[in-house]
Amino acid sequence: MPYIEIKKSVFYEITKRVLDILASLILLIIFSPVIVVVSIAIKLDSSGPVLADTPERVGRNGNPFKMYKFRSMVQNAHDMLRKNPKFSKYYAEYRKGSYKLKDDPRITNIGHFIRKHSLDEVPQFFNILNGEMSLVGPRAYYPDELREQQKKYPTTRDSVKVVLSVKPGLTGYWQVSGRSEINFDKRIEMDAQYVRKRSIFYDLWIILKTPWAMISGKGAL
Prior knowledge:
The protein is mainly α.
């Protein structure tokens, strides 16, 4: 996918990468008990793997990558929504609602809890260590999501190109400012705004706001 690069200093890029690596290693150690407990809870709650089996997302420079997440839905949930006729009305709502679905019947019992508090995102620390993601950045979008939403909101095309020039983030500006309550057009503009304004201090400000977003669960689906 095409992208428009908003260049930042070499100092920023190097510092950001060092912070990503150090923070991910420290947080993996801190969250290790959570990883064990959530993994066991997922296996006891429903059949299927611990990690979600979802399609690739769009990463930096439009390159696809596999994003790790704890499974919060029933097995094969992605294909179920798109291909099972029983879920056609939910798929229509999903596409109409900026690729977010309220009262999603595919979510498991434990899935509701880990999604509300963003615990399903914890495995993304491994994506950060691999260099596919950053601690702070835009949302990692699905390819079909970007294509469909740009048709619905044609004015977002330039913002999408800006967003695709950087690594997606575990957290980000829109995630700590309402999260799933924000429609795609506003969400992608907030992501593009972050890309243009990004700095070490801005990243730290977003990181400091993230724990409250996780605890409160505001806007989570």
